[in-house]
Amino acid sequence: MQSIQTAQPTTIWNKTFISIFVANMFLNLSKQMMSTLITKYADLLGASAVMVGVVSSAFAVTALIFKLIAGPVNDTFNRKYILMGSALVMAISYFGYGISSSVNHLIIFRLVQGAGQAFSATVCLALASDSLPTKKFAAGISYFSLGTVVCQTIGPTVGLALAESIGYSQTFYVGAGVMVMAAVMATRVHTTTSSARKKFRFSLNNVVAKEALLPAAMMMLMSASYSCVHAFLIIYAGDRGVDSASIGLYFTVYALVMLIARPLVGKLSDRYGLGKTLIPALCCYALAFVLISISNSLWMFLLSAVVSAFGYGTCQPSVQTLCMKSVPRERRGAASSTNYIGDDLGNLIGPVMAGTFVTQFGYTAMWRLMIIPLGIVVICLIVFRKHIAGIEKRFAAMDQLSEEA
Predict the structure, then answer these.
(1) How confident is the model at residue 36 (pLDDT cuts 50, 70, 90)?
(2) Which residues, listed in sequence order, are joined to residue 2 by a DSSP beta bridge?
(3) Which are the contacts of 139, defined by CB distance < 8 A and separation ≥ 6?
């Protein structure tokens, strides 16, 4: 059994957190660079529209399968080496894209990427959680998530620009190099391994942290709603007279506002508790969908992006924080895995649900109906408010024990 540090850190930006933050930045920058290129490259190789879709989603198959063992692996072995290994596996997959000469080869390496990705996201969240001071835990998770936001903003643009200037294969090699840099940064993470090392054991309790099921279910519902933005916003905006080039500003504005919103809400969560900050954020989230449903110009879509940044943009790290607070330090790998399983399930069912609503009722009704999952999350927060308060108290008590020790 291992933990990040023997002594409780006192500041968010300690050496271990900085190393994990930078490694996570490299991971996500490389991943975002590849995400916009892989389907375009498949099309260049002659893939049909159906096969382009298969190439795009193939990684999710192995990602979900390997997440079943990501929890027990993260809680058994040294997380530093898991991070290094997962980054190198993803680097191999990106190098493989560069040498691929057929769609079948791309699918194979896409599956390899999913295997590495199953561990990289979960272990980074667990490592970041272990490196944070308890009193600044929510703020720290919010800062940590900003690295992903920045990469979501610049990664696709960097990838496309490189592909146009040096070609696809060379850009894939650059992505592999960035992933290797993530593995190098992982070597700077300070971990300690106790003598009472836990043996690897695959069981439901190790795969899924039952203490984290409530926040994971909330994450699933929120992700289901947000996934329809990526799936249908560009199409819907086109129907409302806003071209695809202009609506891309939605995601830029969303990301930029989150740079302010996430640290602010994280600090408020540490001060007043997650329960008191999540409900206002969910209300902003719901309002963003109402605004989208009545938008008929670019400025209205951009206004909804600002509101959404204070909604989903702050709800996501808050629920992640609750997920990690719900378990002892030695089970944070399972909690992280549980959180991402909820997120993946939401991303799988959300577009299908939204597509069904569009078919039956049209786009305007769909945006408003996708508020229903958010309403369920609010009900959960109210019904389980004592349970959530108990998680906060137990977490604070663990901090007190750490200080006394």
Answers:
(1) low
(2) 193
(3) 12, 263, 266, 267, 269, 270
Query: Contact at 8 Å (CB) between 353 and 227?
Result: no
Pairwise CA distance, residues 221 & 215, whole Å: 10
5 compared with 19, residue with greater pLDDT = 19
Q: How far apart are CA 318 and CA 307, in angstroms?
A: 17
**Residue 7, burial from CB neighbour count under 10 angstroms (0-12, 13-18, 19+):** exposed
Q: What percent of the chain has pLDDT over 90?
A: 29
> Which two three-digit tokens encode residue 96?
């493989």
Place of tokens 């309403």: 375
278: Cα separation from own chain's centroid: 18
Angle between helices 103-130 and 137-166 (to 10 degrees): 150
- For the residues 207-230, what does the mean pLDDT come to? 86
**What are the distances in angstroms from CA 396 to CA 11, 266, 302, 328?**
16, 16, 39, 12
Query: How far is the C-alpha of 308 from the C-alpha of 375, rounded, in Å?
Result: 15
The whole-angstrom separation of Cα 195 and Cα 2 is 9
Tell whether 219 and 188 lie within a shared domain: no
Residue 2, SS3 per DSSP: strand
- Closest by alpha carbon to 131, among 290, 263, 266, 16? 16
- Say if CB 38 and CB 139 are below 8 A apart: no
Q: How many domains does the chain have?
A: 2
Pairwise pLDDT comparison (52 vs 133), residue with the higher score = 133
Task: Tally DSSP H helices, then E strands, for the chain.
Answer: 16, 2
Residue 308's contacts (CB-CB under 8 Å, 6 or more residues apart) are: 229, 254, 284, 285, 288
Tell which wins on pLDDT, 77 or 7: 77
Cα diameter, the chain: 64
Encode burial over 104-127: b for 16+ CB neighbours within 10 A, e otherwise: eebbebbbbbbbbbbbbbbbbbbb
**Looking at the structure, do residues 156 and 7 belong to the same domain, yes or no?**
yes
Q: How many CA atoms lie within 13 A of 76 on its CB side?
A: 13
Domain end (from 192, 225, 251): 192
Strand partners, 3: 192
3-state helix, strand, coil split of the chain in percent (to 5) is: 85, 0, 15
Residue 199 backbone class (left: φ over 0; alpha: ψ -120 to 50; beta: rest):
beta
Residue 232 lies in a domain: yes
Asked if residue 202 is part of any domain, the answer here is no
pLDDT at 341: 84
